[in-house]
Amino acid sequence: MVKRTNLAHSDCPIARSLDAIGDWWSLLIIRDAIQGYRRFGEFQKSLGLAKNILTVRLRALVERGILELAPASDGSAYQEYVLTPKGRGIFPIIVALRQWSEEFDETPEEIATILVDRESGRPVKKFELHARDGRSLGLGDVTLKPRPAAKRARRATA
């Protein structure tokens, strides 16, 4: 098996994010946790994933602070996997991936569910990027620039 490149210290925030959640099993585990799955057996049944692979992925998500182990909510001796605030912060990413698939999938009619507002029962609005003044932003409306602290750090090492 090929060893993954560690991107945790990359200067790119996308690479750092992918280091933490970039494999599909981790994202699907997080998806299931968002839907309320908490127990190893629930994840295993939902994903059909080999127990050893699931164990490794769950352990990594706990080590990265995305999930935490908590006593079982039913008072049994089991432990459950619960999303941390960091893990709940992945919710918009999961929704954006879902909406991207709904828009560009070749057979969107095969997608079994739609995301709806629990209160109204209506489909949620597509994510949009907005400027601080509320304007909708597209790809041509944004650019990257160095952080002032990053500039100073690079000069200090040069």
Task: Show the helix and strand layout.
Blueprint: H1 13-21, H2 24-34, H3 40-47, H4 51-63, E1 67-71, E2 79-83, H5 85-88, H6 91-104, E3 129-130, E4 136-137, H7 148-157
Antiparallel strand pairs: 1-2, 3-4
In short:
This protein has 158 residues and is mainly alpha-helical.
What would you say this structure looks like, in words?
- With 158 residues, the chain is mainly alpha-helical.
- The protein has seven helices and four strands.
Question: How would you describe this structure in keywords?
Answer:
mainly alpha, globular, 158 residues, 4 strands, two-stranded antiparallel sheet
**What's the total number of strands?**
4
- SSE order in H/E notation? HHHHEEHHEEH
| Low-confidence sequence ranges | none
Major β-sheet annotation: 2 strands, antiparallel
Give the DSSP E fraction (strand runs of 2 or more residues): 5-15%
Instruction: Categorize the overall geometry.
Output: globular
Helix amount: 40-55%
Gyration radius, to the nearest Å? 19 Å
**What structural category do the secondary elements indicate?**
mainly alpha
Question: Biggest sheet: strands side by side, in what order?
Answer: 1-2
Distance between the termini: 37 Å
* Average pLDDT level: 89
